[in-house]
Automatic annotation (TrEMBL):
It comes from Dicaeum eximium. This is 26S proteasome non-ATPase regulatory subunit 9. Belongs to the proteasome subunit p27 family. Interacts with PSMC3. Part of a transient complex (modulator) containing PSMD9, PSMC6 and PSMC3 formed during the assembly of the 26S proteasome. Residues 90-182 form the PDZ domain. Acts as a chaperone during the assembly of the 26S proteasome, specifically of the base subcomplex of the PA700/19S regulatory complex (RC). During the base subcomplex assembly is part of an intermediate PSMD9:PSMC6:PSMC3 module, also known as modulator trimer complex; PSMD9 is released during the further base assembly process. GO terms for biological process: proteasome regulatory particle assembly. PANTHER family: 26S PROTEASOME NON-ATPASE REGULATORY SUBUNIT 9. The keyword Chaperone applies. SMART domains: PDZ (SM00228). Keywords: Chaperone. One of its GO terms (cellular component) is nucleus. InterPro entries: Nas2_N, PDZ, PDZ_6, PDZ_sf, PSMD9. It comes from the Eukaryota.
Amino acid sequence: MAEPGGGRPVTVSDVQQLVRRKDEIEAQIKACYELLEGQKGVGMHEPLVDSEGFPRSDIDLYQVRTARHNIICLQNDHKALMKQVEEALHKLHAREKEKHARDEAEALAEAMSQNQSLPQAFARVNAVTPGSPASVSGLQVDDEIVEFGSVNVNNFQNLQNIATVVQHSEGRPLSVTVIRGGRRVHVGLTPKRWAGKGLLG
């Protein structure tokens, strides 16, 4: 039997086809054994001659011989087919593994190219108090701040710059851009008085 697809990659349906063929062969082998069973239970090895060396008259010799021959041929086919099923499954798994590795490499390359196009951060969030305006806005620990209102990497000198922007923006939403997990995220932050210290937390 020719290899499924002859040169093209093995598919799941190729494997299913081989398995169907295997099931058919197994059914044929079973039918041949049943036929032998029907002939006074002669199996594959019982003698076909009587004690005096004459062909047995109580069984259909032609049918028995044919069934035995068919069983041997079918078992050989079955063996070869099982080998093909195994090889096809190996190829299928190898291709899945290859595809997975390729997908991962592409995702990594995409992340790398995104990283290269991400703006530079000038500060990192090291704490966010629960219930504070910063927490409510969705700011998270380890967010890298790229823009905080009018402050960005080009005009940032020290944290006093941010404090000034916060004081002038009490009660007004500020546009804050951060890098989180390799992606640019926009956060709307409104500095305001709350139970804790400062206007942000």
